[in-house]
Design a protein that fits this description.
alpha+beta, 4-stranded antiparallel beta sheet, 49% helix, globular, binds flavin-adenine dinucleotide
Length: 393
């Protein structure tokens, strides 16, 4: 299938099977869970499955750029990423297991993720130290004979409830440079000493995949072979995971923005006030024009960053710039769409209320806006300080 055929197939599946039941999924209850299981089974049968991973990892992906295109469709509905088995944080975990895992680790942990038989979580952020500056993290991993012993407390481990395992960032090299102190260790969720407690977060009622959890590790023992990559390479691997992961987020946000935009335009044309359609009010026209410009700017920035990643570049500035710019655009576009819908935009009769509440986190997760702005300006100023002008390659 060509990329455009794939995109059409995902769009058709979403429109035919997910959008009509979307309002039932908001409740995140037993009925919604059963519905999601049915949708996942159907998507898998139809080959619309794990498009973030290449075929040698068990997925159907054809590179980062192709996935960018596809993800704009998948992002239209919050639940679609889960239906097609490319949901955060499993997508990022799958990518690093594929890239850094040993054959045994891939067999044991990646294979069930790709098959859709299990979920995972990524456990880095801690309540007691700044998540924006995770080099200060306190959870420890100490070798004792043939086992890692893990102690510490994490929170915002997304999807931890009901997951098979987590990838945990722990300090294993306390004397090393701050970027070499931590390692990533695979921890089965049912290991003695692991406690998972969901923390309610705006936008989700919270169940299984949509939970954000506090996870405690108390003398948790796992085999030495559960180390992912090298000792002290935790941040290096995290960067490999979070860089593309941030673009995954923006790709999905584009789907959200595009959908909000379409709803805004449709409502502006059909709703009349003061003798004419809302579409004829200049303020609404400005919202539509500004939203169109911002969405297209985000789309082109995303494609540029995805193209550079496909070429093997680290695209650090491109990713950070895109992350804060797109989070702002996402908030603005959905907010305008809600406003054009009036009170209806605040109800469950429109998907906008849910989209609005989920969108707020975009300014915080995977690095707050301020930190990404700092990264961009630092890199640019470093280039100027070295006597060079900054240029995007
Ligand atoms: C929905 C959601 C899902 C998440 N999922 C995961 C997950 O699966 N796994 C995981 O490990 N973590 C996860 N997180 C945690 C997330 O990555 C952190 O919340 C984020 O990195 C910020 O850390 P913090 O909350 O500790 O904020 P802090 O570090 O306490 O920062 C608070 C605020 O300080 C300001 N600030 C920080 N640094 C600077 C600076 N240099 N300049 C100016 N202002 C600054 C920012 O405004 C920031 O919002 C998730 C968070 C959310 C909201």
């Amino acid at each position: 299938m060509s990329v455009s055929e794939q995109r059409a197939a995902y769009r058709a599946f979403i429109d035919e099977h997910i959008v009509p039941v979307e309002h039932r999924l908001f409740s995140e209850d037993d009925e919604a869970a059963a519905l999601l299981d049915e949708l996942r089974a159907r998507a898998k049968r139809e080959g619309l499955w794990a498009p973030h991973l290449p075929p040698d990892a068990g997925g159907t992906g054809e590179g980062f750029l192709a996935y960018a295109d596809l993800n704009e469709e998948i992002g239209r509905v919050t639940w679609a990423q889960y239906v097609f088995n490319c949901q955060a944080p499993d997508a990022g975990n799958g990518e690093i297991l594929h890239q850094f895992g040993t054959p045994e680790q891939r067999e044991r942990w990646l294979a069930p993720l790709v098959a859709g038989d299990a979920r995972s979580f990524f456990s880095m952020t801690e309540p007691d130290v700044s998540g924006a500056d995770p080099t200060n993290l306190q959870t420890t991993g100490t070798l004792d004979g043939g086992e890692w012993v893990i102690n510490g407390r994490k929170w915002f481990s997304s999807g931890a409830e009901g997951a098979l395992f987590g990838i945990v960032m722990a300090v294993t090299e306390p004397a090393a440079d701050r970027h070499r102190r931590a390692s990533q260790i695979i921890v089965p969720a049912d290991a003695p000493g692991v406690t998972v407690e969901p923390v309610p977060v705006m936008g989700h009622r919270g169940r299984g995949w949509t939970t954000h959890c506090e996870v405690s590790y108390e003398n948790v023992r796992v085999p030495k072979a559960n180390l992912l990559g090298e000792r002290g390479a935790g941040f290096l691997i995290a960067q490999k995971r979070l860089g593309p992961g941030r673009i995954h987020h923006v790709m999905r946000w584009l789907g959200q923005m595009q959908r909000a935009f379409e709803l805004m335009c449709a409502r502006a044309l059909e709703r009349k006030a003061f003798g004419s359609p809302l579409a004829e009010k200049q303020t609404v026209q400005n919202w539509i024009a500004d939203s169109a410009a911002e969405i297209q700017a985000c789309r082109l920035l995303t494609l540029d960053a995805a193209h550079k990643i496909d070429e093997g570049k680290d695209a650090r500035v491109e990713i950070s710039l895109l992350k804060f710019y797109a989070a702002d655009a996402l908030s603005r576009v959905i907010d305008r769409a809600v406003q054009v819908h009036g009170a209806l935009g605040l109800t469950d009769r429109s998907p906008l209320a849910h989209m609005y509440s989920v969108a707020r986190g975009a300014h915080i997760y995977d690095g707050p806006d301020e930190v990404h702005r700092m990264v961009v300006s630092r890199r640019i100023l470093q280039a100027f300080a070295a006597g060079e002008a900054w240029r995007f390659s």
